[in-house]
Each structure stands twice: as C-alpha cells, then as structure tokens.
C-alpha cells in the first residue's frame, strides 16, 4: 500500500475512501481490480479496507460499520449516537438492538443502507472523541437510548455507566432536561430515577427492579456486614429491619472467576461466607437469572415472607451501605 494511503488508513481504523486512494495515485480501474481479486474490501460506496485489516478487526465490526457510514456521508458535524455509541462505549445494550448504524447530525436527517441519521441539536459538551470516532457523550447516549429502549435495559446501561464512573446522576439529569419536549423523554426520566451505580452487574439491576415491581421495600445496595470489627462480607442487597440479605448469583461468578481464583475456590468461599452470615442471625436469599422469569412470583413471595418477620433483637453485627459500587476486574 502506498505510504500516503497507509497513513490515511491508520488515522481511520484501517479504513480509507476512494478520494484517499486517488490522492495516493490509485485509479478507478486499479481500485476495481483490487476489490475483484480480494485485496481490498468495499464496505460502502467509496469506502474500503484491506481484507487483512477486516479480519483483524474481529468483533469490532459494528465500529467498522459506523466509521464506514461516517466516511461515506462525509458530514463533519455527524456523530455516532444512540445504540451504536453505547456499543462503542462498551455498555450493555438492549438484546433487541438491531445492527443499524445510528448517527446524529445537527442539520440533516437521512436514512440509507443499514444506517439512520437523526437530526437533533448537539451542544459542545455532548460530543466526545474516541480514536477516529466522534460520539455523543455517555450521558447523552444513555438518554437517547432510554427514550427508545425498554425501561429495564435502559436502567441496566445507566447502572453500568454510573458504576464505571463514565457519567453521574447530575449529567444524566442535565441531558434529559435538554430533551424535555422530545419523544420518549418521560421514559428516560423514569429510567434515571431508577438508576443506581452501586449495582455491580446487570443481574443485580434486573433483580432490584423485580423487587421494586413486586411492591417490596427498596433495599440498600452493597452493604458491608461486620462482626467484632471484622468484615464478614458485602451483600448485594439488604433489608435492614428484617436483617435479610439478597445475593444475586450470576453464573459468570463461577465460570469466569476473578482475582486468579478457581471456580471451586469461589464456591467454597461463598458457602463459608453464607454460613457466617446465617450464624449471625441474617437470613440469606439467593436469586439467579432463572428466578427472574416464570419463577419470580414464588421468589417474591419467599422474600416477602422473610420481610414479614423482624430480624434478631440483639445484633452481633453492623450493616453499613457503601457509597459506591466496585467494578470487578481480573
């Protein structure tokens, strides 16, 4: 590849345009032959990459599609937005999200092959750059998504962003206030009202929303249980009056344990911790993904039954909520 074209591609995640190629001396016929023989791959009209580069990108294909759409449209004011921006940020997204590239431009609405560009205002603080991409900010992205996504999926994404420190409740409130008259703004406000950055997994978020939906009291999240000053454990959710702890038990905890522990170690540590909690008079409820489906009414009844009985009169432990959740890392 000509050095001029290579430099253009390196600035653009390995992508380049027909204009870039012609600037490096490649003619139309040469471009056509390179595509026909498999050396280059046409992503969109006038946008290409090499076959080797496309293979290297792997699961970043949606990012490739976003950048190809931006290069094809050649609109400097357009940014990646909505679900596409959420994917590029690495946020959990709605399982029903379609692969359409979502863009926003302050001056033009347009739709075409596998892309949709909304026309909407973009303030300077609502646009960020990540590598070759211009994206809506995390808060703007979350609010745009929450106006369209199911409530639960919107709250899952917000909780993940708050936990990671990528946005704040204030940022979300300011973003939705700027969209007060836009379609879907009330549902975005509802999602913000339910978001809590102490939830450390999508399961914890979904479980908390099921608890609220069942009419049960709002639990405290990430509560440290100590006895004689020693940390016994941190429970995912806590009902203080009844001394009931809820643990949201995701399979990933055992299939992909962190901190260099084996699955057997995790299982043993979980058992020992639960035994200690129960010895202190704390009732423990474990809720898995499967419990949030058809079995949920029975699970909710079980929790309600425990909450109907007060906790121990004398407590050999203290329960202190953490101000922030903690991201798990390997």
Automatic annotation (TrEMBL):
Annotated region (Disordered) at 308-330
What InterPro entries does the annotation carry?
Answer: AbiEi_N (IPR025159)
- The AbiEi antitoxin N-terminal domain extends over 5-49
What protein am I looking at?
AbiEi antitoxin N-terminal domain-containing protein
> What's the source species for this entry?
Geodermatophilus aquaeductus
């Amino acid at each position: 590849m000509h050095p001029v074209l290579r430099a253009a591609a390196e600035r653009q995640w390995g992508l380049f345009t027909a204009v870039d190629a012609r600037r490096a001396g490649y003619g139309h016929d040469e471009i056509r032959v390179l595509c026909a023989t498999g050396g280059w791959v046409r992503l969109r009209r006038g946008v290409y990459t090499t076959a080797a580069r496309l293979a290297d990108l792997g699961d970043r294909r949606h990012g490739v599609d976003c950048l190809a759409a931006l290069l094809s449209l050649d609109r400097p004011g357009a940014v990646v937005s909505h679900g596409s921006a959420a994917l590029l940020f690495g946020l959990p997204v709605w399982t029903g999200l379609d692969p359409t590239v979502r863009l926003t431009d302050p001056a033009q609405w347009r739709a075409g092959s596998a892309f949709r560009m909304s026309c909407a205002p973009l303030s300077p603080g609502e646009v960020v750059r990540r590598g070759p991409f211009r994206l809506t900010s995390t808060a703007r992205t979350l609010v745009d998504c929450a106006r369209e996504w199911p409530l639960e999926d919107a709250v899952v994404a917000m909780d993940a962003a708050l936990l990671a420190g990528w946005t704040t409740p204030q940022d979300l409130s300011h973003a939705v206030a700027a969209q007060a008259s836009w379609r879907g703004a009330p549902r975005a406000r509802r999602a913000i009202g339910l978001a809590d950055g102490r939830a450390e997994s999508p399961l914890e978020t979904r479980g908390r929303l099921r608890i609220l939906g069942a009419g049960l009291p709002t639990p405290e999240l990430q509560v440290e249980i100590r006895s004689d000053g020693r940390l016994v454990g941190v429970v995912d959710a806590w009902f203080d009056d009844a001394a009931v702890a809820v643990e949201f038990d995701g399979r990933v905890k055992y299939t992909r344990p962190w901190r260099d522990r084996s699955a057997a170690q995790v299982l043993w540590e979980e058992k020992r911790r639960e035994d200690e909690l129960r010895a202190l008079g704390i009732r423990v409820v474990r809720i898995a993904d499967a419990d949030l489906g058809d079995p949920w009414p029975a699970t909710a009844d079980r929790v309600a039954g425990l909450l109907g009985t007060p906790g121990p009169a004398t407590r050999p432990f203290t329960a202190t909520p953490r101000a922030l959740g903690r991201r798990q890392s390997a």
